[in-house]
Design a protein that fits this description.
The chain is 61% helix and 16% strand. By secondary structure, the chain is of the alpha+beta class. The protein is elongated, with a radius of gyration of 37 Å.
């Protein structure tokens, strides 16, 4: 069963009496697994654990994990006075006030207007085990929602790819039916050409030699090998989409190989009907290739 690389998931809940978190995860297609994790600074130590959880669940895609945390209780604060600023600025302010006749007393609000005089910082305690476990649980819940969405889109991709494969098989059968007729046409055409060239050159060519050369030319123009390889690639593609493991990279490779065989058939073909079928084959495979770019 194939899955898409596009999805979205969200989960929210309390980590502890002091934190409430909301986890948002979104993913789009990418050749490899590329994780981006955004955390508050005081939770940076949990980034590696979050990456490990996501890596276990996903194999491909550009994944953005955003975690927002709100405090549900007031932290302790560290209050510091910059004594260097106080010892330098306050005497000067007093001198200016006395000089202007404004008095020399200062209120607390006056002192708080002095830039960088007072530093108030929340004291961040170490992350507790219950907070680690709570965040891991939320990340897994968001990933589960993401995977549900990716699976639903994967079903749509599977339906489309399966229909394309059925069309390719039908076109393959049409081309295979025309192959013998094309070989006969090539045989007659090459024989006539060789005889015409020999007549114009005024030489008498041995009939066995003509037959040998014609057979070689027909063999070079035959598409039997390409048809066989194309059928094999189609069967491998069917197995890949039905397998449980991620198949995006394999499907991309197989679609390239199918295009290679079809292009070779097109270069060999001289029949208008065969060329038309080859164009239709190429169109179907290119559409499959577009779809598998979003398959995990």
């Amino acid at each position: 069963m194939i899955t898409s690389m596009t999805g979205f998931g969200r989960a929210a809940g309390a980590l502890s009496p002091r934190y409430f978190a909301a986890v948002t995860i979104k993913s789009v297609n990418h050749r490899f697994l590329e994780l981006s994790v955004r955390l508050p600074e005081y939770l940076w130590e949990l980034e590696s654990a979050i990456r490990a959880i996501a890596s276990e669940a996903l194999s491909r895609g550009k994944v953005d994990i955003s975690i927002r945390v709100q405090r549900t209780s007031q932290p302790d604060y560290d209050v510091r006075i910059n004594t260097q600023i106080a010892n330098t600025v306050i005497p000067r302010l007093k001198a200016i006030a006395e000089e202007l006749g404004l008095g020399s007393t200062f209120t607390g609000s006056d002192l708080l207007r002095v830039p960088d005089l007072l530093h108030v910082e929340a004291i961040e305690l170490e992350v507790q085990d219950e907070e680690r476990d709570g965040l891991a649980r939320l990340v897994r819940e968001a990933l589960a929602q993401l995977q549900v969405m990716r699976a639903k889109e994967g079903e749509a991709l599977l339906t489309d790819i399966t229909a394309r494969l059925a069309s390719i098989r039908e076109l393959h059968g049409r081309v295979a039916e025309q192959r013998e007729g094309v070989r006969d046409e090539l045989l007659v055409s090459y024989q006539q050409r060789v005889q015409e060239i020999a007549a114009k050159a005024g030489v008498d060519v041995n009939h066995d030699r003509i037959a040998q050369e014609v057979v070689m030319m027909v063999e070079k123009g035959d598409i039997a090998e390409e048809l066989t390889r194309l059928a094999h690639h189609v069967e491998q593609t069917v197995k890949a989409v039905e397998a449980k493991e991620p198949a995006g990279k394999k499907l991309d490779f197989l679609s390239q190989e199918m295009l290679r065989e079809i292009n070779t058939m097109g270069s060999k073909s001289r029949s208008a009907a065969l060329r038309t079928a080859v164009v239709e084959l190429k169109t179907e495979v290119e559409r499959i290739r577009e779809q598998v770019q979003n398959v995990e």
